[in-house]
Amino acid sequence: MPKPKSKAFARIRAEVIRLVGLIPSGKFTTYGSIAVHMNVMARHVAFVLSNLTPEEAAALPWHRVVSADARLSPRMDPALSRKQKCLLRAEGMRINAEGYILDSDDHFHNVGMRRDIRWSAL
Hints:
CATH superfamily: Winged helix-like DNA-binding domain superfamily/Winged helix DNA-binding domain
Radius of gyration: 15 Å
Oligomer: single chain
CATH class: Mainly Alpha
């Protein structure tokens, strides 16, 4: 039987999902921006988003979260990357052949300032 996830991880996961749900259409943010706001590592954010249930993925605008340089992840499954690119383009973003969002400053969503949270202490 696998070890259950920690209470801290459950809170981090819930907050990542909440913050991603707040990104408006036509905007994007980065794994790192969410991570800085939450006082966690960008890998935590990426892990949560890469392990969404099919129902969560259908309801959540996961496609609005990209790498720090406004680039779609080159390591993403090609079919999923095509889907992300299509969804972002449908929201008015232009993406070049290398996967970079053009005019990124016009589309960037600032999650907010760093919060001093100790997730394990909650």
